[in-house]
Design a protein that fits this description.
5-stranded parallel β-sheet, 12% strand, 11 helices, alpha/beta
Length: 318
């Protein structure tokens, strides 16, 4: 039977499978069930299969998009099965979208974070549509130009990257200048303070100064709309730097909270900043269901240089 050409369901051509608890296949009365499949078919995709979490992936053809609903899945099952699912999708470079609950953030981030995987925390159907639309465009290839809700975040992240790089370069130049100065022969007729006095003290900073800056930023939310000052990249950099000064480890879920934005948005920022070399993911050697985040050496040097420069100029850390 010939279908109408203007029907969106027959314009996409991208195929997907859904991996979920089998109970989600049996009923759609629950608003949360089948949300990824609903979004995918609404965008014109074709569902070619549904797989349970415990089903074998061997001999299963890999489609262009893999949708995973982790709602209600036990942490042990996630630790045991998600790695295979991710590897299965990555084998043919399929786009991967995972819906999860807040309490599953650490277990899932321990297995997959960044690299094109979209993590959605308690998503509504609208959020699923946005993420699945990006997955479809990713599956279609690099010639696609459609990109939902990415430009503003990407632009802000790019500015943050430029600023961090600029600080790191400035710190490197300062270090070279100081080293060259140390190698210069002393002046015969020099200033007594320069020749005999102690060098100017470099202001030190610790976690308390960083935590005060974080508290100041959160106080703004009591008086203004929270979205007015959203800056999750900088909030997470501050939190990770303070935690490093405190010799404390930061879980992915804790970093999401520190970002002061919705968990899905926070995970997107964490993934991008990890892909861009600012953050590093560290597995918990004692619990494979947990991952920690840390600053990269580049970001660490830039943060130290920035804080030192701010305090040297007697400015307030913002």
């Amino acid at each position: 039977m010939h279908e109408p050409a203007n029907d969106i369901r027959y314009q996409n051509g991208v195929e997907a499978v859904l991996i979920a608890d089998p109970s989600t296949f049996l009923s759609s009365r629950d608003a949360g069930s089948d949300r990824l499949a609903t979004a995918f078919t609404a965008l014109g995709g074709r569902m070619v299969g549904r797989i349970g979490w415990h089903d074998s992936l061997e001999r299963q053809p890999v489609p262009r998009v893999v949708l995973v609903d982790a709602a209600g899945i036990e942490p042990g099952t996630i630790a045991e099965r998600l790695g295979a699912i991710v590897a299965w999708a990555a084998g043919d470079r399929a786009a991967l979208v995972i819906a999860l609950a807040p309490e599953q953030i650490d277990a899932i981030a321990a297995v997959t974070l960044g690299g094109g995987t979209a993590l959605l925390v308690n998503p509504g159907i609208g959020e699923c549509v946005g993420a699945v639309a990006q997955a479809i465009e990713q599956a279609r290839g690099p010639d696609s130009v459609f990109d939902i809700n990415r430009e503003s975040d990407s632009a802000r992240l790019e500015r943050l990257n430029v600023e961090v790089s600029r600080i790191a370069e400035a710190l490197a130049r300062l270090t070279r200048t100081e080293q060259e100065s140390d190698r210069r022969p002393p002046s015969i007729v020099g200033d007594r303070i320069d020749r005999y006095g102690a060098p100017p003290a470099i202001p030190s900073h610790g976690a308390p100064e960083i935590r005060r800056a974080i508290r100041t930023r959160r106080m703004r939310d009591q008086f203004f709309t929270k979205t007015l000052f959203e800056d999750p990249g900088w909030d997470m950099l501050l939190d990770l730097y303070a935690a490093e000064l405190e010799s404390r480890r930061v879980s992915v879920s804790s970093l999401c909270i520190a970002s002061a934005v919705a968990a899905t948005t926070a995970l997107r920022w964490i993934a991008r900043m990890t892909d861009d070399g600012l953050f590093e993911r560290e597995r918990d050697p004692h619990d494979r269901r947990r991952a920690y985040m840390a600053l990269s050496s580049q970001a660490r040097a830039a943060m130290h240089g920035y804080m030192t420069s701010v305090l040297r100029e007697e400015l307030r850390i913002a």
